[in-house]
Amino acid sequence: MKSNEKTAIIEALKKYIARYPSQARAAESLKGVSAATLSQMLNGKHDNISAEMWRSVASQVAASTTGTGWQIVETGAFKEVNMALADAQDYRRVRWIVGDAGCGKTTAATVYANNNREVFKVLCDEDMRKGDFVREIARVMGFKTKGMRIRDILNTSIDRLMEMESPLLIFDEGDKLNDNVFHYFINIYNRLEGSCGIVF
Question: How many Cβ atoms from other residues are within 10 Å of residue 177's Cβ?
């Protein structure tokens, strides 16, 4: 991997870390990346970091650093999604964003999450169980769940969201959640109503 690519990843990583209260919390939100690895990247100690790790970090902190050459264009759909996300965050509303596949919902949500504090994007899928769903919320928020019961993880997540000034949860591909998990979400919504924006 070229040094200019690493520099771009480090800049994106710094912006990503700034969204969290600490570097350790940011590290917890990334899959397969330790706090020590982040420190080495930020402190210029790159000798022992594999190209695969650089690519993994790049793919998680900002799509624009992966070297694909793709540029973000603020289309009408992009602007509408951005406005809906900002409205949900600012006024702690629940919103549903519906559009054709490929219209840019996920890209807009990713860009918004990358550029705003207290925004957590959870990727949903049809195989998720209640435990998977709650653990993924905790992971993107940046805290460890090892050894915790599902109820404790949920309570900790909700408590931390309620302590924030203007949090937003984005459930990307939320329509894929099965009914069992979606009914669990209703409990989350009831406890966060008026305290946290939620977007599916």
Answer: 19
pLDDT digits (tens, 9 = 90+) for 63-91: 443 344 567 778 888 999 999 999 999 99
Which domain, by its residues, includes 19? Answer: 3-65
| Residue among 68, 61, 64, 3 at smallest CA distance from 33 | 61
Distance from chain centroid for Cα 141? 7
CA distance 76 to 60: 25
CB atoms within 10 A of CB 180: 11
pLDDT at residue 153 above 90? yes
In 3D, which of 42, 101, 108 has the Cα closest to residue 75?
Answer: 108
Burial group, residue 69, by CB count within 10 angstroms (0-12, 13-18, 19+):
exposed
92 token code pair: 């702690």
> d(Cα 40, Cα 17) in Å, to the nearest integer?
14
* 124 within 8 A of 172, measured Cβ to Cβ: yes
Does residue 110 share a domain with residue 55? no
Residues 182 and 83 reside in one and the same domain: yes
Q: Are 157 and 108 in contact (CB under 8 A)?
A: no
- pLDDT, tens only, 83-127: 999 999 999 999 999 988 888 898 899 889 988 989 999 999 999
